[in-house]
Fold these 2 entries.
Entry 1:
Amino acid sequence: MSLPVRPLGASGMQITTVGVGTWATGGDEWGPQDDAASLAAMRRALELGVNWIDTAPVYGLGHSEDVVGRLLRELAPAERPLIFTKCGFVWNDRKPKAEPIRSLKPESIRREAEASLRRLGVERIDLYQFHRPDQTGTPVEDSWATMVRLIEEGKVRAGGVSNFDVGLLTRCQAIRHVDSLQPPFSLIRREAAAAEIPWCAEHGTGVIVYSPMQAGLLTDRFTAARVAQLAPDDWRRESQEFQAPNLGRNLALRDALKPIAQRHGTTVAAVAVAWTLAWPGVIGAIVGARSPEQVDGWIGAATLELTPQDLDEIAAAVARTGAGSGPVAPGRSTRQFGRTHQC
């Protein structure tokens, strides 16, 4: 099955408009997760045409990358998806429950890269990303210079950042082109559309957004009652978006997407993800999946083209419900990211 692809900045990679996110695969912060279900979800996504997987060492303290590595080992080289991972969260193996340190020290970046290569069982990481800004006082120029060396050594194909603002992007860009930015972006969390996404569109940096369904809120089946049923260690229990009054506003916005989904013969989840893909500069969306059924619920976003009427209706619903913050509607020129075509 083929899905639309878009160019990831100037990296030379063509990626499908949706990719699989593996935070929950790590088995922490989202409640218990079965490895077999994670593998089945990833296989289902690949079967449906998805050509990339996004992971990170900190997801389960290496476990998510281990599971992705298991998937890669069962696939022929020609069948393997592109693999995107990250660095910058360093944990203490002797105190695994302690908060990881956000470090982008050059020596730490290199250690993390080598560890990720081993866990994934690959010789090169397709897209390597700084997970969050550094907290150790390391100048971002020193960190980004290390990324450049990893690319020159052939251990990394393309370099990107996650959760960076325009100031940090500009400092990195002065040393070497930033291939990608990964910001949080959804109908509820829209702040990146004000500055970071336009900066990327102007500079040829591909944007791959995360949490486009706002951690499950913008899906067909989520309810207020379900919050009480979340696992005790599920991070969403502490999130303000899952608590009143935000929860009521967010679910009202979700409900407003149902008529649009019905018109297109798709799901609310697909509409929510497709909305993020309609923004100039956004190349792809990272979508989590804990089972094959969840993949089936959002895969329609890859081919869903929201109409101007749809976008106006969604913008009106955002204003009416008061959900979230940030710009409410993409510009009408939604092809500034480059030509979309079939792979």
Note: The chain has one domain: 14-323.
Entry 2:
Amino acid sequence: MRFGLDEDREALRSTARNLLAELCPPQAVRAAWTQPPGPAAWNALADAGALDVVVPSSAGGLGLDETYLVGVIEEAGRAALPHPLTATALVAAPLGITGTTTTTDLGTTAGTGLRGTGSVASARFGDAAAIVPGASYADAFLLRSDEGLRLYGPDEIDIEPVQTVDASRHCARVRPIAPGEPVTDDPAAVEAAFERGVLGTAAELVGLSRRMLELTVAYAAQRHQFGKPIGSFQAVKHHLADARIQIEFAAPAVLDAAYSVAHGHADTPRRVSQAKWLATHAAAVTGRAALQCHGAVGYTTEHDLHLYLKRSWALARSWGGADFHADRVAASIGL
């Protein structure tokens, strides 16, 4: 079996990479730490169809499946895009929550619906208030409870900003203060939405790992000690090789999980959890190597490394941490 992207899927990924390289450089991510992210990159992705990849063509979308979108989301991770692309394009869109198909008054509430600057924040809520990324500027909230999924506008949610390790995500505790709009109470649909959220987070982690490795390789070639680039030292090579190996293990698992989600395989939960665990592990190994190879400068907020490292820390615990997904894999094989 070949785990890779064909020409069409690679074209979507390349388009996203080029757009994000221009419109979401490190300085844009850094700026998002102190203010809501600017709309340029998000609008460009929307214009390119990234938000509508898995929306049926009858509803104005591209009518494709998750295997087309996963590469785009990986590129969003690589750029540390400070917008909830996974929640909007991969979790909400397949449920019909878009600017053209929603039956709520979201367009009036949000001004632009879910196109253009519109975005969806997603989380589970129960007795305790949920902490939701992008809550301070999201146009809609897709929240999960024991009764299923419901959609809320910003005026139907109480928002309490919280400090987190990655301030560019603009997280907040949210509490519904209105009934909201029912989306689905079908357990299978709710579970499928969860699997797509896990899948997107795994893809973002792979992209973040690739970016951290790129930064470290470039630094190791530029930084000299004892008259030589530190990248020529065997110990540094070992660190970088270990990181590359973990990334190359995780990337095909994410593509396999996307294929499984797209085709509704019975073992999708195992494959998705396996992808999330491997992607989390790859990001952890790569992050440690990046910090060690950068030395003291890697610990400073002035260096760009922290933008990607802290995002990887946050996503490692999003949509289920490593222990949760390891337990799901173990249970699926009878351990």
Note: The two ends are 27 Å apart (CA to CA).
